[in-house]
Design brief:
Peptide Deformylase; 33% strand; seven-stranded antiparallel β-sheet; 186 residues; binds nickel (II) ion
């Protein structure tokens, strides 16, 4: 089932999310629906507040053709594995530790339509992700997955990528965001 994606200006996107306490059938269905919604919108990640739920849950699916060489192999629970082997990811209560070199990369967001911007973030991440079946994945990765994990986990703290652009870019961005807000109110 397709869910509606909350858009910029909706207060739920600004609230830190509550941890998921237990996994039931309803949550499994939510995971399936979030993936379906993300695929339909041609995104690679979606966080629960983007479908109106203030809980710490995220789905990610990074397609093969978006991989860049060596970053397509990641470390999962101490073993090197192809990134695709853990996709799609549906997880709750993530713990993230970004590290490494700060890098610029262009980001967009399904909740901030039509706006893409350069965002600086560390280029690697160590993450502890709990899947809905209780399995814990300890991941060490770079590339697009590291970027996507940071972007999605920001959503769980009520943060958007637009908060992280450089102060110079913020001036232009502020105007575009204001327009976006007006468009949505019409
Ligand atoms: Ni987003």
């Amino acid at each position: 089932m397709l869910l509606s994606i909350t858009q910029y200006g909706d207060p739920i996107l600004r609230v830190p999310c509550a941890p998921v306490e237990h996994v039931d059938l309803e949550l499994n269905t939510l995971g399936v629906n979030m993936l379906e919604t993300m695929y339909a919108a041609e995104g690679i990640g979606l966080a629960a507040p983007q479908v109106g739920l203030s809980i710490r849950m995220v789905v990610i699916d990074i397609p093969e053709d978006e991989e860049e060489g060596e970053t397509s192999v990641i470390v999962v629970n101490g073993e090197q594995r192809p990134m695709r082997s853990i996709m799609p990811l549906v997880f709750i209560n993530p713990e993230l530790e970004p590290y490494g070199k700060q890098e610029f990369c262009t980001e967009g967001c399904l909740s901030v339509r039509g706006i893409r911007s350069q965002v600086m973030r560390p280029n690697r991440v160590r993450a502890k992700l709990t899947k809905l079946d209780g399995t814990v994945l300890e991941i060490d990765c770079g590339g697009l997955l590291a970027r996507c994990l940071q972007h999605e986990c920001d959503h769980l703290e009520g943060r958007l990528f637009t908060d992280r652009v450089s102060s110079a870019a913020k001036v232009t961005l502020a105007k575009r965001l204001k327009n976006l807000l007006h468009m949505q109110q019409d």
